[in-house]
Amino acid sequence: MVKIAIAGGTGQVARETIGALVASGKHDIAILSRGRNAPTDLPSGTKWQTVDYQDKHSLVQVLRGVHTLLSFVQLLSDPNQESQKNLIDAAILAGVTRFAPSEYGSKGTTDMGWWDGKQKIREYLEEVNRTEKVLEYTLFQPGLFLDYLAFPYKTATHVVPLQIGFNFERLRAMVVEGHEDAVMTLTTAADLAAVVTRAVEYEGAWPTTSVGKVKLEDLEAGELKSPWDLEAVHKAVSPDEAPVFQKTVSIGFLLSSVKGA
Known about the structure:
- The chain is of the alpha/beta class.
- It has 3 domains: about 5-145 and about 185-200, Rossmann fold, CATH 3.40.50; about 145-175, no CATH class; about 215-260, no CATH class.
- Helices cover about 30% and strands about 15% of the residues.
- The protein has 7 helices and 10 strands.
- It has helices at about 10-25, 55-65, 80-95, 115-130, 190-200, 215-220, 240-260; strands at about 5, 30-35, 45-50, 70, 100, 135, 145, 165, 170-175, 185.
- The strands form 3 sheets. Strands 3-2-1-4-5-6 form a 6-stranded parallel beta sheet, sandwiched between helices. A two-stranded parallel ribbon has the order 7-10.
- Helix 1 (about 10-25) crosses helix 5 (about 190-200) and helix 2 crosses helix 3 (about 80-95).
- The chain is globular, with a radius of gyration of 21 Å.
- Pfam families: NmrA.
């Protein structure tokens, strides 16, 4: 069990994640918010804490004893991202071990000005850790919520569907001519919440991102230089054959994916 603080805890994605954390029954959870009064539907097993994100000194006091700080602060309401920068500074001073900034969307932000704040915070985290790691952090980047595609129907507990370039109800979609094969990532809000919950329980060091890149030339040469090890293997494969089989299948899967399989 660890003590978790959740900044911006009244938002839709935050509430989705809080629900999963509470369901695990393993943690002491404090919800941080600018609001003075706790909502009537505050999840049982959580505590409400009113904070001033502009008061770094008070944030330090609130974060004393916190192990993991998850930020869901609304980016649009703070163009310069002072709230998250103050949270990061306060977390370091308070001795917080882990931090996750307000991401929960795409990795890239090109042509999406409403997400410019993400890049500012990524750069700030790199800067504070430049000479030595003073705050462990990871970027949760699930892409687009699959639940949005259900519009006007709601498939998540808290995340409300949005109208985007797809309208399944009316059998319509928008694509860019000549780029019909553009790649995108879709994740349900429930799966994101489950991943964050598992990440909180993870005892190793958090990686900045959880996607490891390998080189095409290495794969073509039969080498799998992965930043993490494979474990599971099909039950039809004997234990003696497992290491070679894992490597062979992984290389084949990656190469075939690159070639359109």
